[in-house]
């Protein structure tokens, strides 16, 4: 059987056969063989160097020897792989190193490849480090990509205290002063205190006069006391960052204004209680279950939830757009033509930047009689493919692939009474799996089809708990965190839209 061209080419990476160039790389003088022809095809730099007389080389029989003592062998090996195949598996910080090679050796294709790899390699734990690298090397495009990632994931990044520890003061100030930065103020305070402790240990260990409040003084304008709860106010009070009078007055204002000592607020001042949510649902077993789903949506602070029965009504797009998020539990066999219209309008709703949470078990059944149709299905907005409903003995939360995700905030357990009832597919339609069942099937997935579109989240479990349906084996146990998963999902897709609108109004 003949080999494909890709396999043939990758076979010549560091292959001595027909090689006419020998690279001696790094301090340990690792040897790599290459071919002038391939190097000259990808790089004008190497074409000029290898075929000009001015290049310092050493002829050894048929080989040209070139010394590159400042390069790491693993990086050079990846560079060679790209030369021969125009692709390379870029993991971790390798993208930063390859970007330097692309610049030094004038390889436009590698520039573009690294740009895309950089975007894909950004994670909560490395985004601040990558932002700093982009700034230091004056890479404007990468800086923009980093900032966008930070803003899109700011809630979970602020919860990931470790990623702030090694950041520079300039980076933290820049990030905190972004107008549309989201996240909870208590997480910001924890990050700043942990960062100041690290700075104290690193630079001021023997300076008894230097206190945490002195290190954090420059950050005071970035802290919004009115968005802290009592716990957060106590923390900034303990390090002496604000006077006792200011802390006391803020606590009194909180008590008077909300009559509670905790109100979850994002840094824009928007509370999840401000969201307007439409629960678009039907249930042949009676309205009690729909009311129960509404209770779950409101579990972490959402106060404005309207219910519309999608068996008897189909909201127009103009009606939908009044809401910041929609929860869809649809099982409508009576009006199949409305399934297409509903799918078209929901696609338009997501294109307008708003978010949808889909209860998959009732909406994505692989049946013409029940499943959602129209553009929402046809144009792959949904992060879970249609499938058969299956029952599995494995019935609890399994691997959490994105533990810092906003949807997983406060989720410690999830378990059904007797069995898992789910859409039996592994195909997430180009979306992202946030968490899985213990049997490996997707439990929570998300997808943002295009940059300015809203996000669609799929929850692949029965939406009711044993509180309302104790005789149902597929119901989740009410002492586990099913309600948090549902509420967090709605908060997540809704606040993304809400905060974007607030920013546009401000500008």
Automatic annotation (TrEMBL):
Q: What is this protein called?
A: Btb/poz domain-containing
What region holds the BTB domain?
Answer: 19-92
SUPFAM superfamilies in the cross-refs: Class I glutamine amidotransferase-like, POZ domain
- Tell me the InterPro entries matching this sequence: BTB/POZ_dom, Class_I_gatase-like, SKP1/BTB/POZ_sf
Domain of life (superkingdom): Eukaryota
According to its UniProt entry, this protein's organism is Anaeramoeba flamelloides
Q: Read off the Pfam families from this record.
A: BTB
């Amino acid at each position: 059987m003949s080999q494909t061209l890709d396999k043939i080419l990758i076979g010549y990476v560091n292959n001595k056969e027909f090689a006419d160039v020998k690279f001696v790389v790094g301090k340990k003088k690792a040897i790599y063989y290459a071919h002038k022809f391939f190097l000259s095809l990808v790089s004008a730099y190497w074409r000029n160097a290898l075929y000009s007389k001015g290049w310092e080389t050493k002829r050894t029989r048929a080989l040209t020897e070139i010394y590159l003592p400042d390069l790491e062998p693993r990086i050079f090996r990846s560079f060679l792989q790209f030369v021969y195949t125009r692709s390379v598996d870029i993991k971790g910080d390798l993208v930063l190193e390859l970007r330097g090679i692309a610049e030094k050796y004038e390889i436009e294709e590698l520039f573009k490849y690294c740009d895309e790899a950089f975007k894909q390699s950004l994670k909560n734990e490395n985004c601040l480090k990558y932002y700093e690298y982009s700034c230091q090397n004056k890479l404007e495009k990468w800086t923009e990509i980093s900032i966008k990632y930070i803003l899109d994931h700011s809630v979970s990044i602020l919860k990931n205290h470790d990623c702030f520890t090694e950041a520079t003061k300039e980076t933290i100030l820049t990030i905190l002063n972004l107008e549309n930065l989201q996240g909870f103020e208590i997480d910001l305070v924890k990050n700043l205190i942990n960062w100041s402790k690290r700075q104290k240990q690193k630079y001021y260990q023997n300076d008894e006069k230097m206190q945490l409040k002195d290190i954090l003084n420059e950050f005071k304008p970035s802290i919004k006391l009115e968005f802290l709860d009592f716990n957060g106010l106590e923390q900034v009070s303990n390090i002496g960052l604000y006077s006792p009078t200011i802390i006391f007055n803020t606590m009194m204002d909180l008590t008077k204004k909300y009559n509670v000592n905790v109100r979850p607020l994002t840094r824009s001042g928007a509370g999840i209680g401000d969201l307007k949510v439409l629960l678009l649902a039907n249930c042949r077993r009676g309205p009690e279950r729909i009311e129960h789903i509404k209770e779950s949506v409101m579990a972490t602070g959402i106060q404005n939830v309207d219910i519309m029965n999608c068996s008897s009504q189909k909201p127009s797009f103009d009606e939908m757009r009044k809401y910041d998020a929609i929860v869809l539990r649809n099982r409508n066999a009576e009006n199949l033509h409305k399934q297409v219209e509903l799918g078209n309008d929901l696609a338009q709703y997501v294109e307008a930047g708003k978010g949808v949470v889909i209860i998959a078990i009732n909406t994505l059944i692989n049946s013409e009689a029940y499943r959602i149709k129209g553009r929402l299905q046809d144009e792959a907005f949904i992060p879970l493919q249609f499938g058969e409903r299956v029952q599995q003995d494995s019935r609890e939360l399994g691997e959490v692939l994105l533990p810092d995700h906003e949807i997983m905030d406060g989720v410690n357990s999830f378990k059904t009474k007797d069995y898992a009832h789910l859409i039996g597919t592994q195909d997430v339609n180009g979306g992202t799996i946030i968490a899985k069942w213990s049997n490996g099937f997707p439990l929570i997935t998300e997808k943002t089809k295009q940059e300015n579109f809203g996000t669609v989240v799929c929850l692949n479990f029965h939406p009711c708990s044993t509180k309302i349906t104790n005789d149902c084996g597929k119901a989740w146990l009410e002492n586990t965190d099913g309600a948090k998963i549902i509420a967090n999902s709605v908060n997540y897709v809704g606040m993304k839209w809400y905060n974007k609108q607030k920013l546009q109004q401000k500008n």
